[in-house]
Amino acid sequence: MRGWGAAGPSLALIKYWGKASAEANTPATGSLAVTLGALESRTEAAFDDRDSVVVNGAEQPLERFSSFLGALKRELGLEGRGLAVTSANNFPTAAGLASSSSGFAALAGAAAALAGAQLPAAKLSALARLGSGSATRSVYGGFTVFDAGAEAADVEQGEDHWPDFRVVLCVVREAAKATSSRRAMEFSRATSPYYGRWVETSPAVLAEARLALAACDWSRLGPLIRQSYLRMFSTMFTAAPPLIYWQPESLALIHELQTLRDEGFTAWETMDAGPQVKVFCPADQVDAVVARLAAKVPGARFLTAAPGPGLRSGIVP
What are the CB-based long-range contacts (under 8 Å, 24+) for 255-262? Predict the structure, then answer.
């Protein structure tokens, strides 16, 4: 018997960066995010004589997963049993495209299904958080909020709240990043002189963004999206030594997006701990925006998504 879970990556419009508690994996700053449709991690879990995790066909070191698997087993009454986990993503893994959010959410769903546990979404969200802070949001579809210090995310707006909201993922490098988000967060907190101000100013940005999202107001939400990621990266750039995920292609896309806005386009970018640029824009501008960005960075790959569903799970027939 095998349990399965599938979840889309959670892409933050307003960023969470840093831990309120490293042990509990709770965030120092609140975040507002969208769960992406079309892109997903699909995970299966089965009982075995030992724990193992295979992602995209490659067995993974258990150190990254052992504490999470232990927490899952304690919660689901599976202590003393091994879990064989297999997972696959239909988008680049560990490259700054939030694959950990979808992967750990899908694993929580697969393990719960295998155990026959009917857990409410809030409990699954809290469990997924122990693997990845952003995974707590991927349990839910549409737009989500994960408040500072919280143990689970909440739905902010449903999947159909903003019908013409689209996300263009600009993949400039396919390889996994050298420094994980979790390590980069802790390093930024410990060494950046701007980290304290990042935490202090984030609540006001989040509060205004929630209002802009409720009103489906691009003119208010877009600048807040940009402000949030640039402030987040200021803590990385000023760490000692600095953490620089950006590549020349990343910066070229950022400059081209400003040119597009100057020409009247509604296209606002964000970035996470990686080189990829993510663009939010209305559905009727996607083709033109992609054409311009592809001409600027010919080697980039572009993926388009709308807000998608939350975690799905069950038993493999």
Answer: 256/292, 256/293, 256/296, 257/293, 260/289, 260/292
282 with 188, same domain: the answer is yes
Residues 194 and 156 in one domain: no
pLDDT exceeds cutoff 60 at 95: no
Please indicate, yes or no, whether residues 152 and 195 belong to a single structural domain of this protein.
no
Beta bridge partners of 83: 47
- pLDDT value, residue 97: 58
Q: Which amino acid, residue 230?
A: L
Count CB atoms within 10 A of the CB of residue 299.
Answer: 9
Q: Identify the pLDDT of residue 108.
A: 96
Q: Does 202 share its domain with 87?
A: no
Q: 123 and 257, same structural domain?
A: no
| Selection from 29, 30, 31, 27 nearest residue 13 by Cα | 31
Helix/strand/coil for 76: helix
Half-sphere exposure at residue 166, Cβ-oriented, CA atoms within 13 angstroms: 19
Question: Contact at 8 Å (CB) between 268 and 51?
Answer: no
